[in-house]
Design goal:
Length: about 350
Amino acid sequence: MKTLLILPIIVSSLMASFTSYAQCTSSPVLQSDSKFPQSLRGRLIYHSYSDYGSGSSNLFLKNFRTNTLVQLNQASWNIEDPMNAHFSPNGRYIVFMGKQNTRWNIFIWKPGSSLAPINLTNHTQDSSDVSEDPKFSPDGNYIVYKNNADIVLSRLTFANPDAPLLGTSSRLTNNGYDTEESMPYFSTNGKSVFYSQGAGANSDIYRVNFKIKYNQLVADTPSLVTGKEGLSEYYPVTKNNALFFVSWKDALTKMDQIYWYLPNLQGQPVELSLNDCNADNSDPAPIDNANIFFSSNRGDKFYRLYVGNIYTGKVWSMSNLGVNEAQKHQLGASYTNTR
């Protein structure tokens, strides 16, 4: 039977005082563009494709300060299907996954650079290896990613700021494809990694604590964070000591809903009211203490990007800002307010 581990997390300013559990919203009404959150002055990166693995994925950067939208990847990169980008804490770099030499690799790039992205994992892999889902650590010195169904922690070296390289790598999990682990994300303090373990109805959110002593990784035994019987739980993301993740609302409809983890409510995940009950809602990307980007196929078969308030449930579409491309999915948002 699945159980729930109550995490010893200190609730920060992100956590509001809830008197009852939130619920998804049926037939939600979008907010007026004139009331769009004014705190959005940073940069958003996301990918857009017609179908996963179709070779149609492109990376886009929306700059809210200059109100510009540009496609980042170019044919000269020789990278197929770039996606799932993540900003470094200082906003100077992104890491993302893409295909090169017929397999998935992890790349790093400085937005605005005339140089092509650096393939970080090409030298670490044989012809059957697959590396995906990269995320920066809070200090920007490490990345965590999925490699052959395990979670890997790697140090970055910045001797040449225009060409960072991958240094020492260690596995936080080491069971291969026997039990698949994916979508890793660092805790706010950088001492743990959350990830999804399993597939489909058997996927749950786990956490592994680790220390690095004398350049050696010491990892604890992974522990279950949240796992509801028969429900898929995946895509963990952290912000100010809060944990967001995606879960099926129920096993019948299998509609994806975004939840956050509130330790002050007996350790029970809370369903956000920004969710559309009749649609899939996924890929949360925190903006500030109140708002997140997320993707939803509400009213459409394609995923569009939205901004939602985690307290009020108010939702704004990104379509009038030129972000949502017709006949394509917009997914994998990452946001930075740093320059």
